[in-house]
Amino acid sequence: MFGNLKDSVKNFSQKAKESVTEKELSEDEVEDVLWDLEEALLQNNVAYDVIETIKEDMTEDLVGESVTRMQGESFIRESLHDAIHDVLDQPPIDIDTVIQENDPALILFMGFNGSGKTTSIAKIASRLKDEYEVVLAAGDTFRSAAIDQLQEHGDNLGLTVVAHEYGADPAAVIYDAVEHADKEDADVVLADTAGRSHTDQNLMAQLKKVVEVNDPDLNVLVVDALAGNDVVQQAEQYEAVGFDGIILTKVDVDKKGGSALSLGYLTGKPIMYLGTGQQYEDLEAFDADTMVDRLLE
Ligand SMILES: Nc1nc2c(ncn2[C@@H]2O[C@H](COP(=O)(O)OP(=O)(O)OP(=O)(O)O)[C@@H](O)[C@H]2O)c(=O)[nH]1
Ligand SMILES: [Mg+2]
């Protein structure tokens, strides 16, 4: 997924190597290699603030360091590795803990139209269902066929879907789902919601009501990596509602890796999972180390 960025880093490392002689790195020299890196990151949709942070980190790390020509590349790579790692490293969320500490746990999924909420719910349900009793809540009563879509996943996975009519109040649907889970001794409710943007004032207010009424144990924002730099704007729009963690979907299609860097850093919230395809198994637990390694391998 990080093909482009990998190439850029390779070029950058080559240049870094050329400019490094056996002496202390001056600010000018470091600036020169970071210039290339900045371009690579910009091309990969990394937000400007994030690039600045990475550059500041690396400048602090590199200026004045005495490096031989042979050491140059690995030295700079290591510095880049650390800088990117710092950007991605938010305190993680352990979904098992959330489920075990709440009886039943309510996990609410929110995000823009088509970002992958319903699919991500199905993927997570598929992971959890062997260990936990899972109930799905059809909180998208707005988009036509949304309830049927969730019901189909429920049927595939052998899970109960709690649903009302289209047009019903999603706060009530989710409330009922939690009651049902409580009665049936289920462990966790995964609640779908309608896709919306901040311009949909009514839908945004409706989402706030869902949160106020049901007080979820975990609010998960689902964002689509294809939105590029817009992912940060999208995330900001949900700050009014509040979210705890992020799922970044469609990283299998996104050829630019920048959105993950920007999201983690600018929201201060952890990326919990990456969506890597349309099948149930196409969900990866996010790990900053793995991400950085993949980026730089
Ligand atoms: N390639 C790829 N496609 C995905 C991924 N996640 C979701 N999709 C696809 O994206 C489309 C939209 O996914 P949904 O899960 O319906 O998205 P949603 O956010 O629930 O959409 P709305 O309910 O309309 O707001 C579907 O065609 C999914 O198969 C992913 O990680 N990779
Ligand atoms: Mg949906």
Summarize the structure in words:
This protein has 297 residues and is of the alpha/beta class. 51% of the residues lie in helices and 14% in strands. The strands form two sheets. An eight-stranded mixed β-sheet has the order 5-4-6-3-7-8-9-10, with helices on both faces. Helix 6 packs parallel to helix 7 and helix 10 runs parallel beside helix 11. The chain starts with a helix and ends with a helix. The structure holds guanosine-5'-triphosphate and magnesium ion (MG). Magnesium ion binds next to helix 6.
Task: Give start-end ranges of low-pLDDT stretches.
Answer: none
Under the CATH scheme, which architecture of the largest domain would be assigned? 3-Layer(aba) Sandwich
- Domains (count): 2
Radius of gyration from the CA trace?
A: 22 Å
Mean pLDDT: 89
Q: SSE order, as H and E?
A: HEHHEHHEHEHEHEHEHEHEEH
* Tally of helical runs: 12
Q: Shape, please?
A: elongated
The separation of the N and C termini measures 12 Å
What is the assembly state of the chains in this entry? single chain
Ligand kinds: guanosine-5'-triphosphate, magnesium ion
How many strands appear in the DSSP assignment? 10
Structural class by sheet pairing and helices: alpha/beta
* CATH C-level category of the largest domain: Alpha Beta
Largest sheet report = 8 strands, mixed
Can you give the helix content as a percent range?
A: 40-55%
How is the largest sheet built, in terms of strand order? 5-4-6-3-7-8-9-10
- Give the percentage of residues in beta strands: 5-15%
> What do we call the CATH homologous superfamily of the largest domain?
P-loop containing nucleotide triphosphate hydrolases
CATH topology of the largest domain: Rossmann fold
